[in-house]
Give the backbone structure.
Amino acid sequence: DVKQTEHWAFTPIRNPELLPVNDRSWPHNSVDHFVLSLLEQANLNPAPRAPNHQLIRRLFFDLLGVPPTVVEVAEFESDTSPDAYEQMVERLLADPKFGERWGRHWLDLARYADSGGYEADLPRKIWHYRDWVIQAINHDKPITKFVIEQIGGDLLPDATVENRVASGFHCNAMLDGGVREQAVLDRVNSTGAVFLGLTLECAQCHDHKTDPISQKEYYQLYSFFHGASAVPLDLSPQELKDQIAEIDQQIASLNEQIAKVDQTIQDSLDGLVESEIKKREVVDRAILALLEIPAEDRSEADVSQLVSFFQSADQQRNMLKLRLEEIQKQRPEPETTLVLSQDNRKTHIFVRGDPRQLGEEVTAGTPAFLHSIQNNSLSEQNQNRETLGEWIVARENPLFARVMANRIWLRLMGKAIVESEDDFGIQTARPRHVLLLDHLATLLQQQDSFKSIIRTIVLSSTYRQSSHFGYRESEGANLFQGQQRIRLEVEALRDNALAVAGLLQNRIGGPSVFPPQQDGILDFRATPAVWIESQGADRYRRGMYTYIWRLTPHPMTAIFDGPELTTSCTRRTRSNVALQSLALLNDPMFVEAAQALAKRVLIAHDETDKRITFLFAISLSRAASSQERVIVQQLLAEQLVFFKEDDRAAVLAVGDYGLDEAESGINRQEQAAWVAVCRTIMNLDEFIMRE
């Protein structure tokens, strides 16, 4: 048996020498040497290069999450310069949408949502953290800083507002005030899965059964996060702060005046009672009974009821209360986001994982089988989350770089080098290509850049291979022989539809929005929630900005295998069920996109054949075959007959995107037929896949 500490994932990362290959013309960079060497050993050939239209579409979806335009595809296909592909990669890496695409991947790991989860599922403000992630990735913040700031940005010397916002990573944990320890446990477990590829949660109740992690070490990690809490950070602009301060001052003044009236009523209670008794004919019987109780016999409850009665009858007090309510309604909400703040609590081991049974007290520390945690300014007994972040990204840590490199490869190639991307523990099988993994991990450590390692992978001949299944000579070589076909994630599905329809809004950042969803989704919640449909441009924002109620997410999220909303999601599953086709046909946003696309096609050209050409170019980035043209023309003819017989159906099909027949020469029935064609195209396998 191999000792635990000799497990491949726990050994130091060593940059392997490039492997020799027979076909020296195929490798474009170092990645290809490792891949081709493996293929040649198995007597396999790499798949041919993907066609240009497929390659540009792949790159746009992988790097930006949206399809290329017709013009971008045409320019790329006509560009004969030897570095045309490289130039396009650089343009896409510099595009602000890159941060949104890869930011969405990171938000899965951060278990981002706009509510706290559990039965109450209360709303929370943390979208500023989402914006921080997007900007950090766009600016290519060094990976080491990217991690350290999210683990302990609030503890950095002279921490900036951005540093504190970054600490929102662990404020995304589900949170219920009654079970705070569950949020802290999640922070430990998420740190293990996201940054270390370890199933730390297995050591919550006892020593880990397979990995060299003791229960005590688990709670030493717990100590890092137990001593911090999620608190709101006010990010309001000064003008808003001044406005709130002025209103708060008015509120304080009114409360002070009301308090003076209340004190006057309290001090003169006996006189007020005596005066009120004289009006016994008009006084309510219940109050009269209270008034007639002698002062020396009144209980505290009697006095309280009398005071409340005279308060409600006092005209000055009532006017002050009305004014107070008006002022409070005018008070704007401050612009806040949740951040971590240190409050230093003692930590004990939970006996058998039960927070009600406290065992030995522990201090912050890290598992002994990995490198030691050191900091010149802190003793080992006084480590904090900042030093934990430094320990995670240290070059001595063999796990972090391997885990991150494997995850980036998974996003770009469809399959991971290490299949269990969130578990690099003892039970995990060796990587499918351990030398390639360590080479990528070395590049990640040396370059300290997301964009650099992504650039290396997408520039490789390995990435550029065709995804056609016919080139696969061996099932076992699927990871490296050819590309993978990947269904777009739910956010990219929506963005793709809106983009080809010309509806997608590209404003980056800002609060979450509420696109259309079916009625009844928020019914029967323990805590009521609202979904006020966004209007104008917000209706067509990218899918990553859709408001996420953890308990009741947008139905498309569940239908198309969106991220888990309880813990870190390191990999989304991909199901294939009939309900997905129905959703693509009938979801309000997809119907509207088809209506807008049909209008766009009809306006672009006058002839049917040219319209079909444009439709395929804009939606699939390629030309239509002769057979496809015949099929589309047949579908158009059938739908035109149908809508001529049912004008009401034509009205519904066109929706709010009807053309003026007098100006365009296109009647409603013809436009409705084109809407049907567009709905069909948008439901094709090719439309929802990244080839």
Q: What stands out?
A: Strands lie at 228-234, 336-342, 347-350, 358-362, 486-487, 689-690. The chain has 29 helices and six strands. The two ends are 43 Å apart (CA to CA).
